[in-house]
Amino acid sequence: MRAREVFVTGYGLVAPTVLDAETLFQRISDRQSCVREHPLFAELGFPNTAAGYLDDEQWRHLNAGFAGDASGQPRQTVLADYVARQALDHAGLSSGAFRQVDSGLFVGSNKYCANSQELDQVSLFLDRQGRLDLDRYMQRPARAEHPFARRVDQQTAYLAASLGIRDHVYTHSDACAAGTMAIGSAYRAIERGDIDLALCGAVELMANELPYSMFNSLGALCQKPEFGAAGQSRPFMRDRCGFVLGEGAALLVLESKQHAERRGARPLGRVLGYANFCESEKMTSSSRDGSTYAHCMEAAIEDAGLLRYAVQHVNTHGTSNQVNDSCEAHALKRVFGKMLGDITLTANKSAIGHSLAGSGAIEAVLSLITLRDGVVLPTLNYDEADAEFPELRLVNQPTRQAVSVVLSNSFGFGGVNSSIVLGRA
Description:
Elements: E1 6-14, H1 21-29, E2 36-37, H2 39-43, E3 50-51, H3 56-64, H4 75-91, E4 103-108, H5 116-123, H6 134-138, H7 154-163, E5 168-172, H8 178-191, E6 197-204, H9 209-217, E7 248-256, H10 257-262, E8 269-278, H11 291-303, E9 313-315, H12 322-336, E10 344-346, H13 349-352, H14 357-373, E11 375-376, E12 399-400, E13 405-412, E14 416-423
Parallel strand pairs: 4-5, 4-6, 9-10, 9-13
Antiparallel strand pairs: 1-7, 1-8, 2-3, 6-7, 8-14, 11-12, 13-14
């Protein structure tokens, strides 16, 4: 007997410059980048100031919509609350709906990174050898916000409490694959009958100075300011030189077909298949021949009960990193072979930067809109004439295409690879 069908019935999204998914989709369709000069990076004198960041106007809107005192909450929690309420409204659900059935919460989010102001505060409690005196630090006056009070699951704990979810509550901290893994985990739980309703996706806020320094030390960030902020994320181009930091959040409502039909919900799409593997190749790249990425894609397609030719569109991981783009290109050629010329591809990070855990969830929502509207989003800064892999059919203009099946990839540092197959409702 085939496992239960899983419907997507709602989603919420916040990304650089935008507060909802439809606006983001239209912005990218209009070939407008969400990557800008980050005032903080400019103030600190960083050699490259580009980032896809949430600006002060967006935060004013997010804080104003928070039910309680936003100033007493970590920003990740405020963002998660806003996007969750947006997703529930889109699905036609009340916040109490999760208490009435077996339900789950699956949220991707990586480590909390202190900013320079917080590190300055910590530095006041260093001893003469430069070590943190925890006794002195803990005796300081209590504050709602301080670096050591933050948890990687803080937004998960908040949402679970506010929505009354007790059955399955998980936080995925799996680098760049965390958002896709959260959706995949929710899909699995519904498919096998453990739960009927799930909220899943990712929340990530790492477009600040500490992540910049960490990723730059790995040589992972673009350092060609001459491209201009909007031109620096250029997946699969010969002159690509690294990714651009981004941030944002997306949460999806998943339901079993039976639960959705009982309440008369309108499905927006379906999760058809999912695969996740952890390789042991290298911390920052995969097998150079693309074999491990290919294995993940093939497993997701097989899990969906499909043959390769059923896939019409691929939302690539496409970070603009030299090695990762190359690995993914070789993997796509291994999986699809001669069929590759008939499949359109896009790389959303060209327009919004790389929001790490958030990227897979944001890309899943954009893929669902492609399925619904029959429009493939352009890859910004892409020119086939100067592309390293011109055999890949990456579109650089919004393209009308009736799409029934999308494969979306997320391949994370640390060797965590995830692919998900989405279908039209």
